[in-house]
TrEMBL record:
<dbReference type="InterPro" id="IPR022770">
    <property type="entry name" value="IucA/IucC-like_C"/>
</dbReference>
<feature type="domain" description="Aerobactin siderophore biosynthesis IucA/IucC-like C-terminal">
    <location>
        <begin position="74"/>
        <end position="204"/>
    </location>
</feature>
<dbReference type="Pfam" id="PF06276">
    <property type="entry name" value="FhuF"/>
</dbReference>
<dbReference type="GO" id="GO:0051537">
    <property type="term" value="F:2 iron, 2 sulfur cluster binding"/>
</dbReference>
<dbReference type="Pfam" id="PF11575">
    <property type="entry name" value="FhuF_C"/>
</dbReference>
<dbReference type="InterPro" id="IPR024726">
    <property type="entry name" value="FhuF_C"/>
</dbReference>
<protein>
    <submittedName>
        <fullName>Siderophore-iron reductase, Fe-S cluster protein</fullName>
    </submittedName>
</protein>
<feature type="domain" description="Ferric siderophore reductase C-terminal">
    <location>
        <begin position="243"/>
        <end position="264"/>
    </location>
</feature>
<dbReference type="GO" id="GO:0003824">
    <property type="term" value="F:catalytic activity"/>
</dbReference>
Amino acid sequence: MSRAEPAAVESSCHFTPEEWSVLGGALRLKPLGARDVARSLAARELLKGGECLRLLDHLTPILGSPSRAITASLLSKRISFLATGACLYSLSACDKGLQFSLDNCVIEYGHDEGLWTSSMPLHDLQPLSHALGAPGGRDAWRESLVSSLFAGLLKPLWDLFAQVSGISRRILWENTAVRVYSLYEKRMAGLQDPQIQRRVEADFDWLLNHAEPALFGLDYNPLRHFHRPPMPLASGEGCRRLRRTCCFYYQASNPVEYCSACPLLRKRKKP
């Protein structure tokens, strides 16, 4: 079995109403039939260079971006939020797998009145379970789901974004990494069930410290590479984990705003 094909067992597992309220609510997951038909395309279609250029050029004035490269960075942040959020929340908080792949994902790109309105529709929303009690069963299942998400879905998209826009791949991968950190350290940190919290912590530790670079399609683990301790801000307003690279959000905001992890905050003193 390819690593890009999640290992699963036949089961009748489903998301509980409480789980779906998060996945279909804040994390913006939805069935294919509810997609924004006018502003979406299959993930695999986006791999066509012409389609990717068309989308970047369409979004550039809508986002107020000065260039394709900055548009590609901002779009990658949104795709990262939608893909990693639902996939990894399902994995760690629900112990249920979702297949995030080029053939199962639809990329929406709605952006209205200065805000993203896009969701992540999937062709197949049936959760995949792992073999309960089987030695190493969950580990292999987790590896295949993570490989499908990162190496199978995001790496080809980021490679094409870099190719057609000139944006650095490192920026795209750090855009992805900061979404994962926020998911585990903020959204899932407040889960009350001790068993779920132990699983969340174990999965996050594995992603940061043990997941092989091949699962990302790279020669390094970007989640480990970009993870750094909080640093004091030049403004004197405490400490914060700051990025290594700049996502250029400030160049597409009017008035100028900086994302909360912007590395420029190290240098900007409070007026």
